[in-house]
C-alpha cells in the first residue's frame, strides 16, 4: 500500500511551504482540507495564507520561530475559512522547519480535528505541545510590549492589540478606583459613549468589575446565562453588546488591587485552566505596566508643571519688533533641565532678552535655573547695564555654591558646584540698537534683509558662577528693518551628533531657505530640523535623539528693509586672542558669500589677516574690524576698516628679498582698488575698498604720499 493512500485514509495531507520560491505544494488531501480548488500541485503563498483565520496566522509565526530556535517540530491548530471568512474546519499542522541559507522551508502534515462542542473553546487540544508553545511565545511578546509602554495610553493600546492564542477577545476595558467609585481608565472594541453607564459606578454595585475590585478574585462568565444568573442587576447593561463570554480579573500591584480588567468574547470560551493561566499572567503584566505608567504620567505632569512655572510667557508685545521662542526639554528622566529664556521689560523703555543654560539635565539644574532667572530679572529691572547684570548674576550663582559648604561637595555630585552660560541682550526697539553681554554662550546669529546669515561675534567672559570677579565686555550692533536675530543654547546646534561647526552649518541652511516664513513658523522649522516635531511629549526614535535641552529665541525688527541696505559685520580682536584672526577671516568670507569674483574674496581675506596681525605684533593695543558691503547704482563695494588706539602711523618700506615682514602696504597697493590710513583723536584706522566691477582710478587718498609719512622705523608695522 502506498504512503499516500494511508495518509488519505486517515484524513492527513502533506504540504511543503517554500519561502524562497513563494509557493506552497499540497497533495490532494491537503488541498481538500484547505478548500483549495483542483487537485494536488503548487499554489501561491497568498492564496494559501488567505485560507487561514488571521488570528491563527499571527500565532503560527511565533510557533515557527520557536521551533527554529529549539530545532523541534512546529505544532499548531489552524482554523480554515472560506472566501467569506466563515470557518470551514479546524486542522492540526505538524511541520519541520528547514533553513535553506536565509530562506525558510516547512515540510509537514495537515490533519482535520473534530469540531468543538458548543460551550467549549475552539482551540482546545488533547495534545498540548502546540498550545504551550504558542502560549509561551504570546506571553513573551506581550511582556516585551507592555514593558516598553511609557504612558497609560500606550499600555491601553498594547493591551488592545494583544492576540491571545486561540481565544482573542474583541472587547477590552480597564477599570480604576477613585475613592469608593469604579471608573473606566480606557476601553477598546466599543463605540464612543458605550462606557457611560459604567464610568462612575459605586464599588458595592452588582457588577463583575466592582466585585473583582472588592474581593481581589477573578470572575469568569463562560455563557450569557451564567452572567445573568450571577449578576441580574447589571445583565441588562451587558446583553446589548452581543458577547458570549466574559473574564474579569483583578489588577494587583504589591498586594493592592488597583482596578480590574475585562476581556469579552463574541465566541464561547470555556475558560479552561490553561486559558485562565494566560489571562491571569496577562492581568499581572498589565497591572505592573499600568503602575509604571501611572508613575511616569505623574512625573511627566510634574515636569510640565515645573516648565510652566519656570518658563515665561513672551509678552507684552515689543513695539516695532516680533519675538518668538521655543523650549524643548531632553528626552530622558523628568524631561526638565537647565535651559531657559526670558524677556524682561526695563524701566528705561528698553527690553532685555536672555537665554542661558545651567549645567545638567536634572531637577537641581532646573531649580538653579529658576533661581538664576529670577536674579537676572531682578538685576535687569533695576536698570543695570548688560555687563553689570551678568557680573552680578555670576556672583549670585557663585554665592549659592559657597552657601552649600565645602563639605557638601564631597558628599556627591548632587551638591557639586554648577556653572551656567548666558547671553544677555538689551534692545532699544525704536532704533534697533542692541547691546550684548556674553558668558561662555554661543554667539548670536543675524539674517540680513537680503537673506545673508552671519554669526555676530560678541566678546565674552567666563560662564556664570566660576569666577565672581569676571568682567563681561559689551558688544553693540544695530538690527536693521527686515533683519532677524537668533539666539539659542548649544542643544539646538549639537543635537543629532553634531559639533558646533557642523550644527551651525545645518541651521544656517534652514535660516536661508525659510526667509519667507513668519517668526513662529521659523521657530518650529528650526526645532523640527533638529529632531522632528516640536513637541516634548513625542515618544519613540525622535525622543531618543535628544542629547540636550533646546532653547531658541528669535527677534525680528519690523518694517520695510531699506533698498540696497548695507551689509555689515564688526568684531574685536584682543592682544590675548590672536586666534580670533581666523574667525575674522571666516566672518569676511560669510559676508561675501555671493561676491562674484572669488579672487577678490581671497585678496580681501589676505589683507584683513595682514592688517589684524600687524596691530597685534607691532602695537600693544586691541584691534577693531568693521566690514561693510554697500550697493551703488550699478556696483557693490566692500570697505574694510581696522582701527586701533596706537598713534603711530604705518609707512611703506621696501623689504629685501629675504625679509619676513614689511610687505603689508605693498600688498594693499597691489590688491585693493582704494586704500588709506586715517589718523584719529586716539589711534588710527587703516582701510581698503574693493569694487565688484572694474576698479576706478585711484584718488589722491588711495595712495598716501610716502614723503608725508614719519621717519622710517624698522619696528613700525608694515
Q: What's the pLDDT, averaged over the residues?
A: 80
Number of distinct helices: 20
Strand order across the largest sheet: 3-2-1-6-5-4
> What sort of overall outline do the alpha carbons produce when their principal axes are compared?
elongated
* Unreliable sequence segments: 117-129, 403-414, 534-546, 694-718
Structural class: alpha+beta
Percent of sequence in beta strands:
25-35%
Helix content estimate = 25-40%
Head-to-tail CA distance between termini? 112 Å
Structural Rg: 38 Å
- Number of E-state strands: 28
Major beta sheet summary: 6 strands, antiparallel
Keywords: Hydrolase
Domain PPM-type phosphatase: 318-557
Pfam family, one: SpoIIE
Protein name: SpoIIE family protein phosphatase
Summed up:
Keywords: Hydrolase. The protein is of the alpha+beta class.
Observed structural traits:
six-stranded antiparallel beta sheet, HATPase_dom, 34% helix, 20 helices, disordered C terminus, alpha+beta, 718 residues, SpoIIE family protein phosphatase, hydrolase
What does this structure look like?
- With 718 residues, this protein is α+β, with helices and mostly antiparallel strands.
- The chain contains 20 helices and 28 strands.
- A six-stranded antiparallel sheet has the order 3-2-1-6-5-4. It has a six-stranded antiparallel sheet with strand order 9-8-7-12-11-10, with helices on both faces. Strands 14, 15, 16, 17, 20 and 21 form a six-stranded mixed sheet that branches.
- The longest helix has 38 residues, at 273-310.
- The protein is elongated.
- The termini are far apart.
- Mean pLDDT is 80; it is low at 117-129, 403-414, 534-546 and 694-718.
Amino acid at each position: 500500500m502506498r504512503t499516500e493512500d494511508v495518509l488519505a485514509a486517515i484524513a492527513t495531507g502533506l504540504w511543503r511551504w517554500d519561502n524562497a520560491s513563494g509557493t506552497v505544494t499540497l497533495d490532494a488531501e491537503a488541498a481538500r482540507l484547505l478548500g483549495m480548488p483542483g487537485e494536488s500541485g503548487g499554489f501561491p503563498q497568498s492564496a494559501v495564507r488567505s485560507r487561514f483565520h488571521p488570528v491563527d496566522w499571527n500565532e503560527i509565526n511565533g510557533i515557527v520561530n520557536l521551533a527554529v530556535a529549539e530545532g523541534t517540530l512546529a505544532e499548531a491548530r489552524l482554523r480554515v475559512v472560506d472566501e467569506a471568512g466563515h470557518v470551514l474546519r479546524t486542522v492540526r499542522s505538524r511541520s519541520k522547519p528547514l533553513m535553506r541559507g536565509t530562506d525558510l522551508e516547512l515540510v509537514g502534515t495537515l490533519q482535520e480535528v473534530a469540531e468543538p462542542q458548543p460551550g467549549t473553546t475552539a482551540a482546545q487540544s488533547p495534545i498540548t505541545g502546540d498550545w504551550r508553545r504558542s502560549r509561551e511565545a504570546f506571553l513573551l511578546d506581550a511582556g516585551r510590549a507592555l514593558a516598553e509602554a511609557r504612558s497609560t495610553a500606550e499600555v491601553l493600546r498594547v493591551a488592545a492589540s494583544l492576540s491571545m492564542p486561540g481565544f482573542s477577545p474583541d472587547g477590552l476595558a480597564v477599570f480604576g478606583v477613585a475613592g469608593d467609585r469604579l471608573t473606566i481608565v480606557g476601553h477598546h472594541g466599543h463605540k464612543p459613549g458605550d462606557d457611560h453607564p459604567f464610568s462612575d459606578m459605586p464599588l458595592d454595585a452588582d457588577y463583575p468589575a466592582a466585585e473583582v475590585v472588592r474581593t481581589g478574585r477573578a470572575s469568569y462568565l463562560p455563557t450569557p446565562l451564567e452572567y445573568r444568573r450571577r449578576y441580574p442587576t447589571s445583565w441588562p447593561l451587558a446583553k446589548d453588546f452581543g458577547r458570549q463570554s466574559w473574564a474579569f480579573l483583578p489588577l494587583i500591584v504589591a498586594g493592592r488591587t488597583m482596578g480590574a480588567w475585562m476581556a469579552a468574547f463574541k465566541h464561547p470560551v470555556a475558560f479552561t485552566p490553561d486559558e485562565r493561566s494566560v489571562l491571569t499572567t496577562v492581568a499581572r503584566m498589565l497591572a505592573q505596566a499600568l503602575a509604571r505608567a501611572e508613575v511616569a504620567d505623574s512625573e511627566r505632569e510634574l515636569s510640565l508643571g515645573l516648565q510652566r512655572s519656570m518658563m515665561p510667557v513672551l509678552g507684552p508685545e515689543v513695539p516695532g519688533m516680533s519675538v518668538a521662542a521655543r523650549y524643548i526639554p531632553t528626552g530622558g528622566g523628568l524631561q526638565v533641565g537647565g535651559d531657559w529664556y526670558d524677556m524682561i521689560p526695563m524701566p528705561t523703555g528698553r527690553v532685555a532678552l536672555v537665554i542661558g543654560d545651567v549645567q545638567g539635565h536634572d531637577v537641581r539644574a532646573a531649580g538653579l535655573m529658576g533661581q538664576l532667572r529670577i536674579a537676572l530679572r531682578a538685576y535687569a529691572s533695576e536698570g543695570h547695564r548688560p555687563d553689570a547684570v551678568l557680573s552680578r548674576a555670576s556672583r549670585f550663582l557663585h554665592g549659592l555654591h559657597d552657601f552649600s559648604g565645602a563639605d557638601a561637595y564631597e558628599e556627591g555630585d548632587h551638591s557639586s558646584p554648577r556653572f551656567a552660560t548666558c547671553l544677555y541682550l538689551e534692545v532699544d526697539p525704536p532704533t534697533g540698537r542692541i547691546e550684548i553681554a556674553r558668558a561662555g554662550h554661543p554667539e548670536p546669529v543675524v539674517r540680513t534683509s537680503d537673506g545673508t546669515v552671519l554669526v555676530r561675534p560678541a566678546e565674552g567672559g567666563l560662564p556664570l558662577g566660576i569666577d565672581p570677579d569676571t568682567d563681561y565686555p559689551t558688544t553693540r550692533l544695530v538690527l536693521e528693518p527686515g533683519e532677524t536675530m537668533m539666539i539659542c543654547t548649544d542643544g539646538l546646534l549639537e543635537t543629532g551628533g553634531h559639533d558646533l561647526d557642523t550644527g551651525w552649518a545645518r541651521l544656517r541652511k534652514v535660516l536661508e531657505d525659510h526667509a519667507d516664513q513668519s517668526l513662529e513658523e521659523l521657530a518650529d522649522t528650526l526645532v523640527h530640523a533638529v529632531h522632528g516635531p516640536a513637541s516634548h511629549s513625542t515618544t519613540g526614535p525622535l525622543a531618543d535623539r535628544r542629547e540636550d535641552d533646546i532653547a531658541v529665541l528669535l527677534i525680528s525688527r519690523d518694517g520695510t528693509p531699506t533698498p540696497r541696505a548695507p551689509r555689515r559685520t564688526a568684531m574685536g580682536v584682543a592682544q590675548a586672542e590672536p586666534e580670533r584672526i581666523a574667525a575674522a577671516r571666516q566672518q569676511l568670507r560669510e559676508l561675501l558669500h555671493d561676491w562674484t569674483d572669488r579672487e577678490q574674496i581671497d585678496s580681501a581675506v589676505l589683507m584683513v589677516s595682514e592688517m589684524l596681525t600687524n596691530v597685534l605684533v607691532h602695537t600693544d593695543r586691541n584691534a577693531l574690524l568693521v566690514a561693510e558691503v554697500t550697493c551703488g547704482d550699478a556696483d557693490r563695494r566692500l570697505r574694510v576698516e581696522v582701527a586701533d588706539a596706537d598713534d603711530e602711523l604705518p609707512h611703506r618700506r621696501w623689504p629685501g628679498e629675504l625679509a619676513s615682514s614689511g610687505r603689508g602696504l605693498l600688498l594693499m597697493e597691489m590688491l585693493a582698488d582704494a586704500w588709506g590710513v586715517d589718523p584719529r583723536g586716539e589711534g588710527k584706522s587703516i582701510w581698503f575698498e574693493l569694487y565688484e566691477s572694474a576698479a576706478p582710478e585711484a584718488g589722491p587718498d588711495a595712495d598716501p604720499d610716502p614723503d608725508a609719512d614719519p621717519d622710517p622705523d624698522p619696528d613700525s608695522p608694515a
